[in-house]
What does this fold into?
Amino acid sequence: MAVADLHTKINLQYSSRLSYVSNRLSYSRRFSLRPLPQPHNSRICCSVTSKEVQAPVTVNTEDPKKKPDCYGVFCLTYDLMAEEETKSWKKMINIAVSGAAGMISNHLLFKLASGEVFGPEQPIALKLLGSERSFQALEGVAMELEDSLFPLLREVSIGIDAYEVFQDADWALLIGAKPRGPGMERADLLDINGQIFAEQGKALNAVASRNVKVMVVGNPCNTNALICLKNAPDIPAKNFHALTRLDENRAKCQLALKAGVFYDQVSNVTIWGNHSTTQVPDFLNAKINGIPVKEVIKDTKWLEEEFTEKVQKRGGVLIKKWGRSSAASTAVSIVDAIRSLVTPTPHGDWFSSAVYTAGNPYGIAEDIVFSMPCRSKVNGDYELVKDVIFDDYLRSRIKKTEAELLAEKRCVAHLTGEGIAVCDLPGDTMLPGEM
Ligand SMILES: NC(=O)C1=CN([C@@H]2O[C@H](COP(=O)(O)OP(=O)(O)OC[C@H]3O[C@@H](n4cnc5c(N)ncnc54)[C@H](OP(=O)(O)O)[C@@H]3O)[C@@H](O)[C@H]2O)C=CC1
Ligand SMILES: O=C([O-])CC(=O)C(=O)O
It folds into this structure.
């Protein structure tokens, strides 16, 4: 069905407000796409014939204080076919996105709104978090979303107060984070970004859906996710993820390239550990065409050295070429990560996500956020995969990335409620983009 058909039954309201929430000054704007009330609606004056379109006219409401601004194309007439179509739609879900004016979001938001993430019957509300510095840009993002005429995008609101923006969030995609600048110590980055994620954890705890799923992208994402979940004690720790799907995708691409196959034939790839240069792309359990990678690619030296390092440092190589970090492929990998949680995992396969280690079957230290192999339970929940094997090489690599995450955790103890921070980070620890 044509996009325009669906839009004919949608009305966009636009309002601005200034409000105080918990003593914080907050400014937010709300663009909302609401189904028009049935034909006897007194607020909107549009003809309601099946294919005929008349210029929209906004008329008085019974309550002048609630006067809606009928906005552009969304004020047009109903279409009965569209009415039929929306009967199959699910209940709207709220998706909060931080760093919404940033580069990754600029790709991601349009994928979310198009339906390619949650499916063609899932209407969504986008709640975009920015800052004073980015507010105008955020308005620009909202305007572009309007101009894209997405049928499933029913509301867009923008704000700078996490306590407002995260209200009733079903998903929180936490992308905004300060980039590491020249001369900045990694410990400083952990502290600065940790404070952002501690605050956002508190806000989620206060106002988000009790079953909100949280995907932390802003770096250092594993430890940011740990800080976030520690500050949100009323939300299950299991609901928090840090994004390592981009690393998994990068690993699949390199294995496909080496084996001379298309990348859809590569499966069972786990990224273990931290989203950093200590991450472990697991070629022991990975398969190509259902056959263990080590039986297809016999060059163990390549697997242990070249392949592993390529995946670990891919982000940095890309930054050197682009002059900025991966944005489009990161957005794609966020889509993959969410879709993997809301759709069935293909038989025998799994996907990587950095999740809370409590009760993990691999002997990895408890109480950190560590990338591991997961299978979907379809409703946004997951279970860890049990049938994976380890050898000495894999174990020793996992130990190294585990040690790094434990060191990061000690570094942010002041933000997780675990006392005084002691920062003794391993010297060679880096984000993928830092080398
Ligand atoms: N896990 C992964 O696989 C990957 C993670 N990343 C990480 O994702 C994050 C976002 O990347 P990207 O969208 O490209 O970055 P951008 O620089 O384009 O946007 C980041 C956003 O972060 C916000 N921000 C929050 N605090 C600060 C601050 N103190 N100083 C400056 N900006 C701040 C800004 O928004 P506002 O002003 O609205 O707060 C900005 O729009 C980064 O941390 C990056 O390292 C990137 C690639 C892969
Ligand atoms: O270090 C960065 O900001 C980029 C990054 O995470 C990556 O490309 O994997």
About this structure: Residues 300-322 form the longest helix (23 residues). The radius of gyration is 23 Å. Residues 99, 101-104, 130-131, 133-134, 175-179, 196, 217-219, 221, 243, 246, 275, 325-327, 330 surround NDP (ligand 1) (CB under 6 Å).
